[in-house]
Sequence to fold (104 residues):
Amino acid sequence: MPKTPLHPSPPPLEANDVAIVGGGTVLWFVAFLALLPFQGTLSDHGHGTWPWICLSGGLLGLIGLWYCRARRDAIARNRTAEAALREADGDGTGSGAGPATQSD
Fold:
């Protein structure tokens, strides 16, 4: 017998994704800069790729920043459009659930 939820699903939590990804990106670049002077010693001990792994993490973090900012802006545009649509309806309540809460 399938289990049914006892409570409705809560709305998704909002987080500052740009700040989180930005902080991680900065940490990757700091680690790269911290390891770069020790490149020779790291290579001698078989860990010569560590600085380049940190650099890759920082560069991928820049791509993640671009993605998170684009996503944040798209969500803001969508909310603005939905608010304008509700105002155009005249009642201010909208006409049902948003895309995140609709059921198929």
Q: What stands out?
A: The chain has three helices and no strands. The longest helix spans residues 50-89. Residues 37 and 54 are 13 Å apart (CA to CA).
